[in-house]
């Protein structure tokens, strides 16, 4: 391993990627559990219930894929000379990939929850979320995490570049070093 810094940076950048992925995956695959039956007269009745526990587990596991890929890139980048920059580019790609189909997922989630995320009709006083409100907020949250991830990746690359330039400008060992005396007179006689 050349350096552990790419791995550490990947772990740091994986956090906002995970939370963005959690919201994006929820929009993509979450659906209510629907119970239907026929009423007398041929009318179809439906009741919407919260999603099943197995679906929630799937959402959490799928949300781990994007940050796990970033951490794996960080491990591989630890063996490369410019590994920090590889991790920064991978984090930006990861964050942008979460938002590629976000609008479609938002629309599909709204269609799957006809009474809104709280499963209570909008006409009642108990409804906390209007239809599509939670989906819009979730999509905005994913975009916000995308921007945070990209900003942190760019800041990390700039800091790494500044440290590299500083290291190159530092005096080499064996070269004469000028010592600061704070303005006090010095003597060069032996």
Question: What does this protein look like?
Answer:
With 190 residues, this protein is mainly alpha-helical. The chain has one domain. It is 59% helix and 6% strand. It is built from 6 helices and 2 strands, in the order αββααααα. The protein has helices at 5-29, 53-63, 65-77, 83-98, 102-112, 133-169, and strands at 33-38, 44-49. The longest helix has 37 residues, at 133-169.
Write the layout of secondary structure elements.
Layout: H1 5-29, E1 33-38, E2 44-49, H2 53-63, H3 65-77, H4 83-98, H5 102-112, H6 133-169
Antiparallel strand pairs: 1-2
Helix pairs in contact: 1-2, 1-3, 1-4, 1-5, 1-6, 3-4, 4-6, 5-6
Gist?
The protein is mostly helical. It is 59% helix and 6% strand.
Order of helices and strands: HEEHHHHH
| Rg for CA atoms | 27 Å
Biggest sheet descriptor: 2 strands, antiparallel
Number of beta strands: 2
Note poorly predicted spans.
Answer: none
| Beta-strand share of residues | 5-15%
Mean pLDDT across all residues, rounded?
Answer: 85
Name the features:
elongated; 59% helix; 190 residues; 2 strands; single chain; mainly alpha; two-stranded antiparallel sheet
